Amino acid sequence: MRRTNKDTLAAHHDFWNTQPVPQAVAEKNARVPIGPIESKTSAEVSKEPYPLPAGLEWWTPKVSNPQELDLIYELLRDNYVEDDDCMFRFNYSIDFLKWALGPPGYEHDWHVAVRRKADQKLMCFISGIPITVRMGPAPEFDAPRRICEINFLCVHKELRSKGMAPSLIKEVTRRVNLRDVWQAIYTAGVVIPTPFSSGQYFHRSLDPAKLIAIRFSRIPPQFEKFQKPLEMVKRHYNLPEQTACRGLRPMVPEDITVVTELLQKYLAPFSIAASFSVDEAKHWLLPRPNVVYSYVIQNEKTQAITDFISFYNLPSTVIGNDKYRELRAAYTFYYANFSVPLAKLMNDALILAKKNSFDVFNTVDILKNGEIVQELKFGPGDGKLNYYFYNWSHPSVPPSQVGLVML
What we know:
single chain; alpha+beta; Aminopeptidase; 2 domains; three-stranded antiparallel β-sheet; globular
């Protein structure tokens, strides 16, 4: 499931036509340049925030403040991404938001909110965090660049159709530009001008009975002919009780330096990929209860760390179901496999997710995920995840050339 609010991105093509983004998909075999679309200096950027409609004001919440973080959580919980049938809504936990919004070196004023003046109610939010990305093979741009990752664009239902999304995007862009950062990356389930890649969602059932009960999935046609079709579905998706990779264990702080090296080596062949410092890898990959789960393989003879895998917890509220209130979904995060086949490592991740009471394991066919989805019984979802650059021209690439996971 990956959708956007009706008042976020899709309805504002006129706005995007004014922005430094690629405006059309290039003709097949046409040469697309790599690099900035426009160039400015921070001296050209307004020091004043963009105007807002009467009764509203800009606010910069502090993610280090539990009360202010709780307000962001409540806005997203009640107003953020829903599926097209309004059956599920993302429910990022407070701990998840603290993790996602507060990486090393984050800029406090890149967290942009709008409040109602009368009662200080939080009405809109958008976030930016710093990220280092390799953005193409052009010789002059082959070094990783420090850019901004945009996420959590959310408009309260009371302000839908009021044109707030462009104001949020322009304001966060202004604040990012003031820090002399000129490019951004973001994703959306809708198509706007113009994605550089598009990935397919895949879902692997861990608790098929629950998924069918909440109508996340249905009994596959090949099992409907059986007297007890649900039992056949359960048998089809059954997993071993124990993991198969020798030396697999939870990641600990002492592993981070080696894990960072493994990740950088693994991401090196991808056309577009994240680049992590040790501190950043520590923040993103060290296990956090109910947020991110990470495991390494340690060679039993040499004690060397040879592989790792991680996934994160992004539950959804189940809307209108009397029995179930939450869908527990694990999402593929970063990994590096050098001593074991990826399918074997990922199957162990499925087992571990099942042991941690997840209902479904989701992935997008970026990285090498697309190579193992069929073998591991992932089914294609109905959603696409489109990847975008702001102020950066880049030719289209297949998702298998994207080495960057967006939360």
